[in-house]
Predict the structure.
Amino acid sequence: MQFELRTQVVEPRRKTFSNLVRRYGDRPASRYEEGSVDIQATENFHYRPLWAPDKELYDPTYTAFRLTDPYSFMDPRQLYYAPYVQSRAASGEAFAKSLEYVDTRQLLLKLPEGWQAIVADLLLPLRHYEAGAELISIEGSRFAYGTTIDQACTYAAFDRIGNAQNISRVGIAFNDGHAHALAEAKEKWLGDPALQGLRRLIEELLIERDYAKELVALDLCDRLLYSVMFTHLDEAALLSGAGAYSLVAQHFSTWFLDQRRWIDQLIKTWFADPEYSEVNKAAFNDVLARRWNQIVEAVSDVAAALDARVDTGAAAAAQAATSAVAAQLSELGLTVPGGK
Amino acid sequence: MTVPTQKPARKLSMQQRYSALTHDLDWDPTYVTEEEIYPYTTFEGIKVHDWSKWEDPFRLTVEAYNKYQAEKDRRLYAVLDGFAQSQGQLGLTEARYMNAMKIFLQGIPSGEYQAHRNFSHLARYFNGPGARFASLCQSLDELRHAQTEVHTLSHYNKFFGGMHDWSRMSDRVWYLSVPKSFFDDAGTAGPFEWLIAIGFSFEYLLTNLLFVPFMSGAAFNGDLPTMTFGFSAQSDESRHMTLGLEGIKFMLEQDEDNLPIVQAWLDKWFWRGYRLISLVAGMMDYMLPKRVMSWKEAFELYFEEQMLNGLFKDLEYYGIKPPRHVQWAIDEKEILSHQVYWVLYQYSHAAAFTTTIPDAEDQAWLEEAYPDTWPVFKSVVWDKAQRVVDSGERYFNPGLPQLCQVCQIPMGFTEPGNPLVQCQRHSIYEGERYDFCSDGCQWIFDREPEKYVQAWLPVHQIYQGNCGGPTLPDVAVWYGLEPGDGGEYIGSMDHQDWLAWHAPTIKEG
Ligand SMILES: [Fe+2]
Ligand SMILES: [Fe+2]
């Protein structure tokens, strides 16, 4: 007879945390779920904010958009911190490679003259647009109710300051390591009539104090602007010997596809809410009524300025994008102001 | 239309390049005013004349940040996966070690998460782009900490009690109102006070006292995941410390009128943070099967030596004095952990951790670590508790404790220099009486009574019927407590499982 010491088979007592069992039943949970659902405090707050004494520290009424259950919104990308930084490390590396390729061959400096003007006058100033977009997004990181929305806003904010930095890198490469292209781009952002619609929009959104309304308006503008600046110009650039622009643009188009995934899901969730569906549509309509024409004008100003430098049909592309987005919104039962 | 010409400017220096990628993204608004965009930076009375004087505490770009952090998380999650696959929990020193991690999970990730949300507030509402970007990075880091802590302890939750409902418990359970009220207090303050409260006082002054006991406790007790998490978070923490230090220096350098405001915040948040981590003192001296150092030693090293004799010497230049009430903390260092653990012992039937009387080995260690105070404490408290156990019972306090209105810890601290007399202070505000555990908490209340009268005090709430019902079992259900979460360790589910897992089996062959 021989004795063998071994440890007993160890049976787990439970598969995951109780809050997830209450929501989804007794099943193993993903890391996205364990790290995102029910993380934010929801009750028994101790003190009122000194800067908002009518609100709780976390309060669903910081915005007009409401959800019966904040965790009815789940990020379709399932991004929590670790996969977020991993995916962005990969896209950051890809961008750096493209830029290095463009830079070592001085492809930006060799762009046709009109395309150089597009980069200098219209692309580079958008680093400020992206910086403003970061501020709007981080407002959601503080004021969203529930961790899943907060978290998506946080990553969007970091993405957008990253976009701003990448556009700035293009500017530095554009001038072969000198900064004056960025300085001139800033002057354009501050004074060029073609960009004032965008700047005015961003500045006005920054004083709204309703993160979701700001986010929705920004997103409407993004849809039009990205479609002209990056999707449309990407193709046009390829056709007119401006390959360097195309190389840069595709990174922004790719990012925007990713961004759309969570924003579309958020909008879908708002409108499917059992209790607040109509409230949310009204809030969305409110944004459209106040901002749609302003956004359409701002982007068509940019498109006209693009066509003035290289006639790629940007104005027509902007109009097509406007009609397409308007049709999508109408399909959702929203009221898009007419005339544009 | 301009076509850039090749100007003979020199290439950008690293600093110019960094500035082009960060500060220079900012612009002065003209369609609205700066005050409208950043409305919360004046009401606290802090005067800032020139935000461009903010020195970046670290120079990271988004690209570099994502790269470093992705690599760190890849390594951390590999350790977590390996530990779970190999049933690493079987290699812990003892199941009762898990009590430290229960307190950690119940108290810390919710605080990290609050830090994330409120650094986002700074990232949005500070006027200066440098201060905003540093806050943005910290906001992401804190979200990381909350999530990696939950993921680190997720495996243990499957095998041990007390961890399964941490997020609800952190909103409801009596002792967890201590950390919750701490972070609620900071988050409801203005952005500059937050920076002093969390960025400086918590992340700089007290961070080693909070984290080293947990992390080295993990290392000594076979808890590889928590230890790995701790190391992984350390490089984030060093960025946070430099942000906190830059924050306080920036305020002090901007205007001399800021000094009294900053000093008062420092006084407040030192005491607030010190009271919060007294829970850690009880944990490290009584809950770790293998100990690293005593609370007293940690306090002497990480606070008296590194902060009082180090940092505060540097801050003297600005006119900053050591925190008010610091002497009280020094005087308490030999009794603090005994008093806190005794409270936890008495009320652990209503808690999500277990406690037990220190065994012979523990007692020998305590005697050596606290030769002046342990023998007295042992005879006054533990010998009696042991007699109850010998008679086949276990002493739990059947009543509800009175809580300090500010720190929310049960009143059990004593008068300085007289460890046998309970300290109790009170103030009258608008005809009502409010009680405090110490001069420090009373002083904090008296500065802002309109804030602290709002506190959600767990014991009051139970009396008012807001916690599930009038009896302790009702409250336990509302807290989310399940069998195996609290009470006495010896004979608990964790203890029994542990013995079963490690029982040798005889196999014929
Ligand atoms: Fe942290
Ligand atoms: Fe207190």
Observations:
- The two ends of chain B are 90 Å apart (CA to CA).
- Chain B touches chain A through 112 residues (CB under 8 Å).
